[in-house]
Amino acid sequence: MLKKIEYGKNYRYDSYTWEELKEIIAQDRVALLPVGSIEQHGRHLPIDADSFILEQMCIAAAEKVPKDILLLNLIPYGFCWHHIDFPGPLSVSGRHLSDFVLDITKSLAYHGIQRILIINGHGSNAPYLEDAARRTVLETNAICGSFISYNLAKKEIAEVRESEWPGGIAHACEMETSVYLYLAKERVKMDKAVKEIGFSKSKYHWIDTIGPSPVSMRTWWSTISESGVVGDATLASIKKGEIIFNAVVENLVQLIKEIKNRKIVNRKDHH
Ligand SMILES: [Zn+2]
């Protein structure tokens, strides 16, 4: 079930020679750049959760539309300094992350790639990746967008969700634990899975991946969680994980097709 981005696969960006790549780029495919995170995910999930799950989603999508996509190697590290009170997190500062990703997208655009998607496996990367995507648009000839993987399947996730809102799906929660169980249940310590929703709820601020609050206010994770979990991991199941994983992959395939066929409109200077 677990997949690697195999060398020599048609969709793998870095397995071509430069001469081959010249032809591949002329096919006007969509470059997909995954960015994850290495950080604590409670006592029951490995610290690779965001990166591992994201890479599996990208490979599964690429296998379905190998000729429409160029999959780049995952960037495993993201912005997670707010988790640093727990052992494990390796954080890249937000500005570094944005600049680093921009350097990659600029290189892609220089080679003639016109369509770039940055797929994000970790919520707190989002503002920095959006910044990189917007700067890519303004500083190159490419179109570029960024998004959190799970946002592609909010409707399907809401349908299988049993945990309370807000708070049941936030971090190392019902959703992430379910998907990890589906992909590699032997790595999940379900006997240590807990429910912990420790932030103070207000009218305008809460934490929930699928239904976020109007106000974004992030605090040190150790001030809102003792276990590292925010959500209800005890409600996780393989079946839910399968549904969520497949929904994200299916919708990612649709998105790639849409971006592949999107008309790129030239600027017009009205001065
Ligand atoms: Zn996570």
How is the topology of this model organized?
Blueprint: H1 18-26, E1 30-35, H2 49-64, E2 69-71, H3 94-110, E3 115-120, H4 126-139, E4 143-148, H5 154-160, E5 169-171, H6 174-184, E6 195-196, E7 230-232, H7 238-261
Parallel strand pairs: 1-2, 1-3, 3-4
Antiparallel strand pairs: 5-7, 6-7
Helix pairs in contact: 2-6, 2-7, 3-4, 6-7
Bound molecules: zinc ion.
In terms of DSSP E residues, the strand content is: 5-15%
* SS elements, strand count: 7
CATH superfamily: Creatininase
Q: What is the CATH class name?
A: Alpha Beta
N- to C-terminal distance: 56 Å
The CATH topology name reads Rossmann fold
CATH architecture: 3-Layer(aba) Sandwich
Percent helix among the residues? 25-40%
Task: Count the domains.
Answer: 1
Task: Count the DSSP helices.
Answer: 7
Structure overview:
With 271 residues, the chain is α/β, with parallel strands linked by helices. It has a single domain, classed as Rossmann fold, CATH 3.40.50. The protein is built from seven helices and seven strands, in the order αβαβαβαβαβαββα. The strands form two sheets. Strands 2-1-3-4 form a four-stranded parallel β-sheet, with helices on both faces. Strand 1 (30-35), helix 2 (49-64) and strand 2 form a beta-alpha-beta unit. The model has no long low-confidence stretch (mean pLDDT 96).
Task: Please outline what is shown here.
The chain is an alpha/beta fold. Helix content is 36%, strand content 11%.
Keywords for this entry:
271 residues, alpha/beta, Rossmann fold, 4-stranded parallel sheet, 3-stranded antiparallel sheet, 7 strands, binds zinc ion
